[in-house]
Amino acid sequence: MIFWMIVIGILAAGAGVVALTQRAESQEDVNIANTAEWLETEGTIQSAAIERLDKNVWYPGFAFSYVVDGEYYSGKFFLKADDARSEDLIRNLIHNKLSIQYNPDDPGEWYIAENTIGSCEIIQKLNSNYPSDNGLYRDEGDAPVDLHLNG
Fold first, then answer.
1. Distance in Å from the first CA to the final CA of the chain
2. DSSP type of residue 118
3. What is the pLDDT of residues 47-73, one digit of tens each?
4. CA distance 107 to 112
5. Which of 31, 33, 108, 147 is the most buried (most CB within 10 A)?
6. What is the DSSP string of 49-108?
7. What pTM does this model have?
């Protein structure tokens, strides 16, 4: 009996994970569809570096800027690339131009409509896998996290 309860629990947890993943992907699709009416401008890649996104994940990150009505805005995207390809991308994409879609109601909201740059998948703000600017591995380097909960 306990065996079957464990099996049912595992199956329920798996179904929950699948449902949450589908919901996140559905929300991502809605967010991207909402950019259809956004305006387009040209951005310039200003800087690039290999950055830690997660415990074992490092990708090249690219900071860019664009101008709307005389005001400067900026953003950052990452490219899914292996180590060797990352160095080439960093070297070759600096100062390149790219097409940026921006929200006319809030020009600081941006989206890159292309699926790839340099044949690498783009990780950007409207993607569900876009990292926050801080977190366990993003802003703490290799310093261990103190999990002692005593006062």
1. 42
2. T
3. 999 988 877 888 999 999 999 999 999
4. 13
5. 31
6. EEEEEETTEEEEEEEEEEEETTEEEEEEEEE---HHHHHHHHHHHTT-EEEEEEETTEEE
7. 0.69
